[in-house]
């Protein structure tokens, strides 16, 4: 019985519990539903507000776009109106100019008609006067003109013959006197400076111990030196000296410089000797070219072919009857320019011929032709002017002289040979040329500094960055090059470099 009651109580308790649970669940469901509805209302209101804001934003952007289009349209209309006004003004101006031109044309036609009438009246008056003169003289105008011309021609011939005879007689009397005056003036304007080249060079050493290292084991070093340079090395009992003997001054100079480098370095063996000699030979070739260019710059001669410049440089290492060939040629060039100026000839052309007159002596190979004729053929090969070529070939009277410069070169060559040396203004003319280059570039606006470098073959121009733009710097470089080309005389070419630099400097403290 108790069990039954317990079961019934359990069932009743479970039912009551279920009823309580169901009522609690219903309340929670209603509470969640009300909360969801409230949240939905909030979300709805937010979405409506966002939609309104988006609408207002799109409306504002649309209005701005419409206003911008309206402004562009207004500007376009205004531009069209301005253009139309300009066209109307130009049309009015053209009409006004057309009317003025028409009026001037009418005025000019009236003046031409007046001039034609005056001309016709003058011709009638002239013909009337000629008729009166013909009736008075009994001769026609053509006959009178012929008689007058014949008489004037006879008189002119007589006076011309008399004047010609007087000029010839005076020239014969004064020719020798004037020629001597020109030569004396030229000789007075030169100074003596002899440059004698020998066939040996003395190389000084610090001690006789170095001689053994130069000779090498069983003489292998000295044989390598002689084979590489083509110069004889004489190592004798002369204290602290080695004699370099050779006919070619270029080879002797290469041998001297190579030996100096080997002794300074201390490494003397056949491989090192060959390396140093090749290096020095290259340096000497570069120095020959530099000497030729510098000589042309000093004398103010430009436009020489590179091979001719090289030949001029080689003259430094050649001698003619004990006289340095380069100094002899420079002296001859100065003498030719002086004489040409005295005689009213072209001094630049004469100076060019004087410098090149002995280029037939400097080639390495031994030509079969005389040096004057060989030099003339070299000048013709490198496109020198006919007057210069003839002067080179005729300075020993081996070809016929065809220009007035040829006898000048002959005479100046003889003067220089009789009295070697010439007055030279190497440093002065060189510095003057560089100064002129720098001053020319400084004359342009915006240029701060100028530097002539590379013996005047390069001009560096520094400009103010706030006054000259990059594009203007290119134009400035072109303008300076054009002005130098038009106003200055120089050999080779001049490189103009315009430098524009911006620097920003700050200090951290």
Describe this protein's structure:
By secondary structure, this protein is mainly alpha-helical. Among the domains are: about 200-285, Ribosomal Protein S8, Chain: A, domain 1, CATH 3.30.1370; about 305-420, Hypothetical protein af1432 (Orthogonal Bundle), CATH 1.10.3210; about 430-500, GMP Synthetase, Chain A, domain 3 (2-Layer Sandwich). The protein contains 14 helices and eight strands. The protein has helices at about 1-135, 140-190, 210-215, 220-230, 250-265, 270-300, 305-315, 325-345, 345-355, 370-380, 385-395, 405-420, 425-440, 470-485, and strands at about 200-205, 230-235, 240-245, 320, 325, 445-455, 460-465, 495-500. It starts with a helix and ends in a 9-residue tail after the last strand.
Number of DSSP helical runs: 14
- The chain-level mean pLDDT equals 78
Strand content: 5-15%
- Amount of helix: 55-70%
Strand sequence of the main sheet, in spatial order?
Answer: 1-3-2
In CATH terms, the superfamily of one domain is Hypothetical protein af1432
Runs in which pLDDT lies below 50 for 5 or more consecutive residues are 191-198, 420-427
> Which architecture of one domain would the CATH scheme give at its second level?
Orthogonal Bundle
Order of helices and strands: HHEHHEEHHHEEHHHHHHEEHE
**What's the overall geometry?**
flat
Based on helices, strands and strand pairing, what is the structural class? Answer: mainly alpha
The gist of it:
With 509 residues, the protein is mainly alpha-helical. 70% of the residues lie in helices and 7% in strands. The chain contains 14 helices and eight strands.
């Amino acid at each position: 019985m108790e069990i039954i009651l317990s079961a019934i109580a359990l069932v009743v308790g479970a039912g009551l519990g279920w009823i309580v649970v169901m009522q609690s669940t219903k309340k929670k469901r209603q509470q969640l539903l009300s909360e969801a509805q409230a949240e939905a209302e909030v979300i709805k209101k937010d979405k409506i507000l966002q939609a309104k804001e988006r609408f207002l934003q799109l409306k504002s952007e649309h209005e701005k776009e419409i206003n911008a289009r309206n402004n562009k349209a207004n500007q376009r209309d205004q531009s069209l109106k301005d253009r139309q006004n300009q066209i109307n003004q130009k049309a009015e101006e053209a009409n006004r100019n057309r009317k003025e031109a028409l009026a001037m044309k009418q005025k000019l036609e009236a003046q031409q008609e007046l001039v034609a009438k005056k001309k016709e009246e003058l011709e009638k008056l002239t013909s009337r006067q000629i008729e009166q003169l013909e009736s008075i003289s009994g001769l026609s105008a053509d006959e009178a003109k012929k008689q007058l011309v014949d008489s004037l021609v006879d008189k002119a011939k007589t006076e011309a013959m008399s004047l010609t005879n007087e000029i010839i007689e005076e020239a014969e009397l004064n020719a020798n006197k004037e020629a001597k005056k020109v030569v004396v003036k030229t000789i007075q304007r030169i100074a003596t400076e002899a440059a004698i080249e020998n066939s040996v060079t003395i190389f000084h050493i610090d001690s006789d111990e170095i001689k053994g290292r130069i000779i090498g084991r069983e003489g292998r070093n000295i044989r390598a030196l002689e084979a590489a340079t083509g110069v004889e090395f004489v190592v004798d009992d002369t204290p602290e000296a080695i004699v370099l003997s050779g006919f070619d001054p270029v080879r002797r100079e290469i041998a001297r410089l190579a030996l100096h480098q080997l002794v300074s370095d201390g490494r003397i063996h056949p491989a090192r000797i060959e390396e140093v000699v090749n290096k020095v030979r290259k340096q000497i070739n570069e120095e020959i070219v530099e000497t030729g260019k510098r000589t042309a710059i000093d004398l103010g001669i430009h436009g020489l072919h590179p091979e001719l410049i090289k030949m001029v440089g080689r003259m430094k290492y050649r001698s003619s009857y004990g006289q340095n060939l380069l100094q002899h040629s420079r002296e001859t060039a100065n003498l030719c320019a002086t004489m040409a100026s005295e005689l009213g000839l072209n001094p630049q052309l004469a100076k060019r011929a004087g410098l090149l007159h002995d280029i037939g002596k400097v080639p390495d190979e031994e030509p079969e032709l005389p040096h004057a004729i060989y030099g003339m053929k070299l000048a013709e090969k490198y496109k020198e002017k006919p007057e210069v070529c003839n002067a080179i070939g005729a300075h020993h009277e081996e070809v016929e002289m065809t220009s007035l410069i040829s006898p000048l070169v002959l005479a100046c060559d003889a003067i220089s040979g009789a009295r070697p040396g010439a007055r030279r203004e190497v440093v002065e003319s060189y510095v003057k040329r560089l100064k002129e280059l720098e001053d020319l570039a400084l004359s342009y606006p915006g240029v701060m500094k100028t530097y002539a470098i590379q013996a005047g073959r390069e001009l560096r121009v520094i400009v103010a960055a706030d006054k000259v733009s990059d594009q203007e710097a290119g134009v400035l470089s072109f303008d300076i090059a054009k002005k130098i080309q038009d106003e200055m005389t120089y050999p080779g070419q001049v490189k103009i470099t315009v430098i524009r630099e911006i620097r920003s400097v700050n200090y951290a403290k």
